[in-house]
Structure formats: structure tokens, C-alpha cells
Amino acid sequence: MAPAWLSFLIRGIIAVLFGLVAFIWSGFVLEVLVYFFGFFVIINAVVTLVMGASSEHPPTPRWLLLLVGILGLGLGILALLSPMVVVVAFLYLIAAWALVAALGDFILAVSVAGDWASRILLVISGILGIIFALIIIFVPLLAELVLVQVLGIYAIAFGVIGIIHGLSLRGQADAAAGRPAA
């Protein structure tokens, strides 16, 4: 079994490499993620269909399992045949959320009792939410690439922290064993 420090080190290196790939080749990473999603949904749908068709006493009504399986199969096939449709649908969901959150900020700004600074911050937050949603709606290609790049930045940061932690654990293990630090 590998020592804990090595696991963190390897995980960190892989995360940094993934982050660099996501940051440099955002379109490629996004496409690969959609294909993974499509295959996952198809496998899940097939398992659900088998459970719905073959279980003597399924945990949920048989018709519901079959419906979920068929819908999942359709979504998975759509993701594989037309990945950009899935990406754009996901982006529009994010835009819808941003608009709802912005509306909530405006309502709070008007209805909350408090100082003007809090109200102004809520209005600014609402305006930013609307701008964010409009960028997604009118420039979806830019939005999808930025989302993948943010994922890449996160993966790099996660990886660097993992590498540092792994090396720290190695130093602790070496010190506990009485070996000089490498």
C-alpha cells in the first residue's frame, strides 16, 4: 500500500496537469466532459431500464423506472450526438439562476430595513447577476470557455495544495523514522 504522502503527491500532480489542460485547451476539456456525461447517463439509463424491466419487486413503480430510463437514454444519446446542445442548456440554467438571484437581491434591497450601504451592495450584486446572465445568454461560447478555465484554475490550486501537503507528510514521516529530509 502506498504511503499517504505519495497518494497526495500523485493526486496533486494529476490535478495540476488536468488544470493546465483545462486552462490551455478549454474547448477540448469541455467536449470530453460532455462525452463522459453522455456515457454516464446512458449507462445509468440502461441500469434503470434493466431494473424496471426485470425486477420482480422494484423499489419504485415500474413505469417510473422505465420512464426515467428512456428519458436518460435520450439525454445521453443527445449529449453524444450533439454535445453543444447540452452545454448551451447547462449555461442557460446558470443564466436563469443568475437572473433569479438578481431579482432576489433587488427585492431585498427594497424591502430590507437597514443602512443604505447594505442596500447599495444588494443592488450592485443584482446588477452583476444580470450582467453575468446576459453574457451567458448572448455570448455562450465565451461563457463556456471561461467556466472551464475557472475549473482549470481550481484544479491547479487544488493540485498545488495536494503536492505541498504530500511533501509535508513525507517530511513528517521521514522525521518520525529518523531519516534526513530529502
Automatic annotation (TrEMBL):
Single GO cellular component term: plasma membrane
InterPro entries assigned: Acid_resist_chaperone_HdeD, DUF308_memb
Keyword entries, A-Z: Membrane, Transmembrane, Transmembrane helix
Transmembrane segments: 5-26, 32-51, 63-81, 87-108, 120-139, 145-164
Pfam families hit by this protein: DUF308
Entry superkingdom: Archaea
Keyword Transferase (UniProt): no
Protein name: HdeD family acid-resistance protein
Organism taxonomic ancestry: Archaea, Methanobacteriati, Methanobacteriota, Stenosarchaea group, Methanomicrobia
